[in-house]
Design brief:
Blueprint (H helix, E strand, L loop, with lengths): L1 H20 L3 E2 L6 E4 L11 E4 L5 E8 L9 E5 L16 E4 L6 E7 L11 E5 L6 E8 L13 E5 L4 E4 L38 E7 L11 H7 L13 E9 L5 E8 L6 E8 L3 E2 L3 E4 L9 E2 L10 E2 L19 H19 L14 H16 L2 E3 L29 E4 L17 E4 L3 H10 L15 H4 L34
Parallel strand pairs: 1-3
Antiparallel strand pairs: 2-9, 3-8, 4-7, 4-9, 5-6, 5-8, 10-11, 11-14, 12-15, 13-14, 15-16, 15-17, 18-19, 20-22, 21-22
Helix pairs in contact: 3-4, 4-5
Bound molecules: 2-acetamido-2-deoxy-beta-D-glucopyranose (11 copies).
One 2-acetamido-2-deoxy-beta-D-glucopyranose (NAG) binds next to loops.
């Protein structure tokens, strides 16, 4: 008690000193400031002071950019600039410490009830910190801290031995398509046009960081500035040896919205990579993991098909010609795309003979929903997805059994892999006979059931029963339960997970 009041007195006495010795810096909205090494004050009575910008409500946001030293920086804020600053009186007088969580992030919202223009006058003080510390301080209006973690994970498309397709979290919902109405009920063409990408001004700045697991990208602190300091920036570059972004574009892969898509390489085979996305320099996603295939893996990647927007995976095709890195709509063989588009066109024609837009065949589903679900299914079955049997496991197919929903949570079920031996005809006749031994990751049966549910019975679209013939051609029991009754009641609830496991094709 005595010591405390002594300290308070000391702070009181030294206050004029603080004002005269410390250059008071200003923090502005949305422009973070980083304190490093010599920026930190060596004297406990002489904190680094910042004046806060004025607004009725501001949110302070902190991020550690390096692991904390034995004398880590401590940050205090006050809504009143006249308050005497010092760690000892943090409990009183509107002075609050902004604490950091386990990841190295902290935030604090200050209200200025009587702000009125010139109001504000808040102060931020940083005590402690050593040569090895690094702290980023940001201020924003409103309640969202500048370092707020991204809510959604990046998305893994697929990998080969030395390339991968990765997506950012969705950042902008798609323009709602105008609902077609009777009597002019029209549906998108089979070969739809590319949707117009969002303007750069409505897109956040998304940066990809990835590295093999053993490089320690996943160690603490988990903040954007720490990842940036540790990770190799993966912007497009010229060094042919270092892994980097080979190509990127905005892509609308599904109804969740626009994402940034990255093709990365060259990667090391059979390696577990950790992936982060940083939005606008300060907001970090959670980590996503993926593994590359072995050097034996021969299937190239296919992506950016306007008529199959979710396709971004390896397909059993020869390597693309003319130095192309992968397949897209411009070089995918005609004998593959023509039947696909013809099926879709013919299906759409039959669909439109139904009472689209009139006596709805379902109160919930429209012909447009049916066409979209059929398109998704058709792409998944027409473009088989290559995979590899796990290295250590037996090389026989491990079909998933019924009742996988009862598996305990920690158990990871084997993926829905099927062998496609050399010389055997593919299910899609357009692919001819397999030119070598392949392993195929079967489509999730939910892609079929979704089309079955969305489409009029009269079209005769049917899916195999999950309990009987389903597992021969589909991944069963991963998303929905194996008996198909429980939506989302499957063993994994999803086609793939954050840790790099891909169970079936068709998310
Ligand atoms: C921190 O120190 C560096 C040089 O070491 C300097 O350039 C920078 O302006 C300082 N930052 C602050 C906020 O004082
Ligand atoms: C603390 O802030 C409130 C308004 O936020 C103000 O009314 C009060 O006077 C302040 N107290 C001190 C000790 O500055
Ligand atoms: C802000 O900090 C609080 C704890 O003080 C924490 O619960 C919350 O998740 C943080 N918000 C964000 C967006 O980081
Ligand atoms: C029918 O709708 C399409 C697009 O919704 C439009 O382009 C076309 O002009 C319309 N046709 C008639 C006859 O209204
Ligand atoms: C890559 O190298 C080529 C020629 O070597 C050069 O023209 C180009 O500007 C370089 N690109 C980058 C991003 O450095
Ligand atoms: C996007 O962010 C990166 C790193 O955070 C930065 O280097 C780059 O200049 C930013 N680009 C734009 C257009 O703001
Ligand atoms: C690659 O294929 C060969 C021959 O099929 C096999 O012996 C070898 O184990 C495979 N290597 C890997 C890493 O799968
Ligand atoms: C689509 O319909 C046309 C005309 O009826 C037919 O010639 C064609 O073979 C059909 N396409 C497929 C893939 O069945
Ligand atoms: C498809 O076309 C490619 C060349 O574009 C050819 O190599 C391949 O054999 C064809 N496949 C079939 C099944 O006709
Ligand atoms: C493809 O396989 C089928 C069945 O094994 C066989 O009858 C046919 O001759 C094969 N075609 C080619 C071009 O090898
Ligand atoms: C990749 O590494 C992560 C983190 O250690 C781990 O949880 C995950 O299971 C690994 N993924 C694979 C496919 O081995």
């Amino acid at each position: 008690m005595l010591a405390q009041s002594f300290w308070a007195l000391l702070v009181l006495l030294s206050f004029p000193l603080i004002r005269s010795q410390t250059t008071q810096l200003s923090l502005s909205f949305d422009t973070p400031v980083t304190l490093i090494g010599n920026n930190f004050s060596t004297s406990a009575s002489n904190p680094v002071l910042f004046s806060l910008p004025s607004s009725s409500q501001i949110t302070i946001s902190l991020a550690l950019c390096a692991s904390a030293s034995s004398n880590p920086p401590r940050v205090f804020v006050s809504s009143s600039g006249s308050v005497i600053l010092g760690p000892s009186n943090a409990d009183g007088q509107n002075l609050s410490q902004v604490t950091l969580n386990g990841l190295g992030l902290g935030n604090f919202t200050l209200q200025f009830p009587a702000a009125g223009g010139g109001g504000g006058g808040g102060i931020l003080a940083v005590y402690g910190g050593t040569q090895s510390d690094s702290l980023e301080i940001g201020v924003s209006q409103g309640e969202t801290p500048l370092h707020a973690p991204l809510a959604d994970l990046p998305f893994f498309g697929d990998s080969t031995a030395d390339q991968a397709i990765l997506f950012s979290p969705a950042f902008l919902p798609p323009e709602p398509a105008p609902e077609p109405t009777f009597p002019n009920y029209t549906l998108p063409q089979a070969n739809t046009a590319l949707p117009v990408p969002p303007s750069p001004s409505s897109s956040p700045n998304l940066t990809l960081f990835f590295a093999p697991l053993d490089t320690g990208l996943t160690s603490l602190p988990q903040t954007a500035c720490a990842i940036r300091a540790r990770g190799v920036p993966t912007e497009s570059g010229n060094n042919s040896q270092s892994p980097r972004v080979l190509a990127e574009q905005p892509w609308l892969r599904d109804a969740e919205g626009w994402r940034r898509e990255w093709l990365v390489g060259p990667l090391q085979p059979l390696t577990n990579y950790s992936v982060y996305v940083i939005q606008d320099g300060t907001r970090l996603s959670r980590p996503l993991f993926f593994t590359t295939k072995s050097t034996n893996f021969s299937c190239p990647l296919v992506h950016a098909l306007p008529y199959c927007p979710t396709t971004a995976y390896s397909v059993p095709l020869p390597q693309p010609h003319d130095g192309a890195l992968l397949y897209d709509a411009s070089n995918l063989p005609d004998n593959l795309t023509s039947p696909l588009l013809s099926y879709l066109t013919n299906f759409t024609t039959s669909l439109l003979t139904n009472a689209c837009g009139r006596d709805s065949y379902s109160p919930l589903r429209t012909c447009a929903d049916c066409q979209a679900a059929y398109r998704h299914w058709l792409c998944a079955v027409s473009l088989p997805r290559c995979a590899e049997f796990p290295q250590a496991a037996p090389t026989t197919a491990v079909p998933q059994q019924d009742g996988q929903a009862t598996l305990g949570a920690p158990q990871i079920p084997p993926p829905a892999l099927a062998p496609q031996p050399s010389g055997m005809p593919w299910r899609n006749a357009a692919l001819g006979n397999a030119s070598e031994d392949y392993a195929v990751l079967l489509p999730c049966i939910e892609t079929c059931n979704a089309a079955d549910r969305a489409c009029p019975v009269s079209l005769g679209f049917r899916c195999p029963r999950a309990e009987t013939t389903g597992p021969q051609s589909y991944g069963v029991g991963f998303i929905d339960s194996a008996n198909g009754d429980v939506m989302g009641g499957g063993a994994t609830h999803s086609a793939q997970d954050q840790w790099g496991n891909v169970f079936c094709n068709g998310s």
